[in-house]
Amino acid sequence: MPMEKRPGNVIPAWEAIPVVDLKGGNPNGEELATVVEQIIDAGKEFGFLQVINHGVPENVINEMMRVAEEFFDMPIEEKLPYYSTDLSKLPRLHTSAPGKEHEEVSYWRDCLKLACYPTENFMHTWPEKPRKFREALLVYTMEVRGVALKLLKLICEGLRLDEGYFDGELSGGGLVTSVNHYVPCPDPSLTLGVPGHCDPNLITILLQGKVNGLQVLYKENWIGVEPIPGAFVVNFGEQLEIITNGMMKSAEHRAVTNKTASRTTIASFIAPTMDSLISPAPALINEKNPPLYRSFLYKEFFASFITNIGDQEHVAEGFKNKTS
Predict the structure, then answer these.
(1) Residue 282: what pLDDT?
(2) For the domain that residue 206 is a member of, what is the CATH number?
(3) Domain membership of residue 237 as a residue range
(4) pLDDT at 106
(5) Of the candidates 300, 307, 303, 279, which has an alpha carbon nearest to the alpha carbon of residue 291?
(6) Helices (H) and strands (E) in the chain, counts
(7) Strands (DSSP E) along the chain, which ranges?
(8) Residue 256 resides in a domain
(9) Which of the residues in the chain have pLDDT under 70?
């Protein structure tokens, strides 16, 4: 990569990303108030958190990671039918970042991108190999979507929004999963697995696996997110930042490589429908807190994100009110 974009040999700080215990996925009473407060605080400070005791069975997580790793271990000729540079095609196996496959500099990543929800619409498109891939992804998709929807309801509780504020179009754009694979890199100081970016969607649930690589920009420093067995990394997308009028951060993050170990991660993205109207929630707007963002259709934002990936400081800046 160009000198100014290389990660170099700087060791990231290990400022602890908050870990929230969801108490088996169903906190109640005093536990609920504590969990809600922790989620809101993490969103305001970091835009990231990790959740444990989220209610997804360990065997579901392990089986999904197993078939994901097996997919990338298959011979090239068995993966090749899924390879495409057509951004509209799903499932799609690609390298680097979307739209960057033919550029002189590529990112150190292979990615299998899948449309996953509603499952009945897409299951027939998923890879048949390795064996049980479809079955594992079906169960995993439903479980992870459930975690995301629970978190959105807890955020509503913390911000005093109607419990179902994110239901319908704001979270109804389906669920897309990116299975990312980073092979060992001879010199990690020269490249990135994924460039620094903010997710354009509403909320993302990441199964990080056992190998370090995720970094979050916090107070102008890159901090590493330590893998926790069985935990999910949760980050808030730019639509959540906009809807909460800047209260919940969408933090820039990236993936770095390493010399010794392959790394596989599974990211599940919950997004609005493309024609969904996005704007700050009226309940969060008053004279002291005017709307920071204009209203727009999600498809406008997503198009801007794709155009500027790898280059944007923060795509949402283009959607801010001129007077804010």
Answers:
(1) 97
(2) 2.60.120.330
(3) 3-319
(4) 80
(5) 279
(6) 7, 14
(7) 19-21, 48-52, 92-95, 110-117, 175-182, 194-197, 203-207, 214-218, 221-224, 232-236, 253-255, 263-270, 277-278, 296-297
(8) yes
(9) 9-14, 25, 97-104, 309-314, 323-324
- Answer yes or no: is 145 within a domain: yes
The residue to which tokens 């704001």 are assigned: 170
Residue in the structure block whose two tokens are 């669920």: 175
Indicate the number of domains in the chain.
1
Query: pLDDT value at position 306?
Result: 79
Distance, CA of 41 to CA of 159 (rounded, Å): 11
Torsion angle of alpha carbons 315, 191, 232, 48, nearest 10°? -40
In a domain, 55, yes or no: yes
pLDDT value at residue 40: 97
**Which amino acid makes up residue 82?**
Y
Cα(316)–Cα(246) distance, rounded to whole angstroms? 10
Q: How many CB atoms lie within 10 A of CB 63?
A: 18
Structure tokens at 63: 């089986």
| Sole residue written with tokens 């979050």 | 216
3-state secondary structure of 255: strand
> For residues 271 and 279, what is the distance between their CA atoms, to the nearest angstrom?
14
Residues 162, 159: Cα–Cα separation, whole Å:
9
Instruction: Tokens for 142, please give them.
Output: 């439903």
Helices (H), the chain: 29-45, 58-73, 76-79, 119-122, 133-159, 238-243, 298-308
Please provide the size of the chain in residues: 324
pLDDT value for 272: 97
Backbone angles phi, psi at 93, to 5 degrees: -100, 125
pLDDT of residue 196: 87
